[in-house]
Amino acid sequence: MDDDSASIDISDHEIWEQRRARLKALDSVNGTHLQAESKYRWYLLLLDAVEEGNVDKFIEAVEKYSAEERVSLSDIIDIQGPSGSSLLHVAAGIEEADILRTLLEVIRDKGLAAKVNYRGDTALHVAARGGRIRTADLLLGCSGIMDMANDTGNTALHEAVKNRRYELTRLLLSRGSRSVYQKNKESKSPPYLAVEMGDSKNLMLLMEAVDGHEVLGSRMEGLSPVHGAVIHQRIEMLKDMSERKKELFYLRDDGGGTPLHLAAYLNYVDGVEFLLSKFASSAFESGEQGYLPIHVACKMDRLEIFKKLLQLWPYPDELLNLQEGQNILHVAAKYDSTSVIDYILINPKFEKLINAKDKEGNTPLHVAASQLRFFALIWLVIDAAVDLELVNNDNLTAFDIADEQLEKMDATPRADQLLAVPVLEAVKAPTSKDKVICMPKGLHPGRDEEPPHLNRLKDVASTRMIVATLIATMTFAAGFSVPGGYNGSEPNVGIAALLNKPMYDVFVICNTVAMYSSIISVVILLKTQPNTFWQVDYFLRKARLPLLIAIAAMSEAFMAGVYVT
């Protein structure tokens, strides 16, 4: 039995020697310059031979090509298709590894294995993408190829992870791939890709490959895999990473946010609970803007998460944005987070926050006014504890700030922004008594000078109001002076003479529509006297449609009246 095995081994060895000898003989052929047409024709023939996987047939095709075109083996191996892929790329992508083995054994320039196609892929990228273990193993014998990145920034390890090639991932890691930390053009490292795909098996392979004493977080490039697990809500992966590589949880995103910041932003309740149970101190770590995770919850109006974060610290007045000195109510008011605002206002333990001032002296009401937050202002002004008369460091009340902010806007305000000042007017919010002294005329021209074209807009509003009033008057009169008059004889005394005519119905309907539309237009236009530039512009636009309807309907009513008579 042993003699038979030895005989087979010797025979196999001799076959490979013969194959190598046949290919090496082609190296001595004097190369010639091939025309593109001939090159692509032969590339297709060789491509078919490679994909068939029969090494002997492939060698025969190469010998035939070399003999007919007088080209060397190196030139044949270097021949490329339209996508820039060489025969090595093709051989790396098939299941049979014999052809690739033969080529790698006979080529003198091992650098050919590192050549890339037009997408930047090496033959190893192709093997990794297809999960070709044997071909990948052969290619790893070529130096410098393992951690090469293609045009998307992906190394072979990235491709193996993306395509769930577990054995190939294990092979690359066992050969010492350093791409575990490397990011691609999307700023995604292999661990992040594994998390993104929900691939726990590949993630564990990557975690296990890192030396136990090595600080993975300090070398990790791009997006943090922990942040990725939060984004994709992979709670089991969060647990696995916390057990194996806890330092990953201390990585920050580009905005300086922790995983807890992100979980609060995305309203990922399970993630918040887990992070608080394992990394409670991160609740008091601020991002680049000075926001704590609880401020993010306030910003996004995440009431449930807000309550959970609040349980960690019994003194809410100390939970400040370190840059602006704003408390949780300031932040909620700034972003119109009505659920959080309501919860704070009805809870007595937050009483200190209601009129607290930030570094600029602004109360939550000032902040809501500065952003023209209609709904936040509604909640705040109806609360008896809110002091409407407080001024900030510039001696401005909330009303002063809202009025000034509306005047300074370059773009047309939204409808809710236009209603911010009326809300404060409705509760008789005062202006500052000291602002004339502290802010003399001309210091803020946006507040003291009328915006351009305000008078012209008011003239347009007045003209349209006259037109709308005339239409309302005429249509009202026409409703009683109907076409054809009234019957004067029994039994239909006082009934419209043309009542049974179809066009009479058209007259009545159009006349009624015109009258009510013009009245609506008049009511809207009344709001422009007096008002700010943006409010006049807003009400003009709102009054335009009913006025046009009134004009059109009155014209139809006139036509119907003439026709029926």
Unreliable residue runs: 4-8, 440-449
- Distinct helical segment count: 31
- How helix-rich are the residues, as a percent range? 55-70%
End-to-end separation: 121 Å
Shape: elongated
Kindly provide the name of the CATH class of the domain at 18-179. Mainly Alpha
What value does the average pLDDT take?
Answer: 84
Which superfamily, in CATH terms, is the homologous superfamily of the domain at 18-179?
Ankyrin repeat-containing domain
What value does the Rg take, in angstroms? 40 Å
User: Per DSSP, what share of the residues sits in E-state strands of 2 or more residues?
Assistant: under 5%
Overall SS class: mainly alpha
CATH topology of the domain at 18-179: Serine Threonine Protein Phosphatase 5, Tetratricopeptide repeat
Q: How many DSSP E strands?
A: 0
Core attributes:
mainly alpha, 31 helices, 565 residues, 57% helix, Serine Threonine Protein Phosphatase 5, Tetratricopeptide repeat, single chain, 0% strand
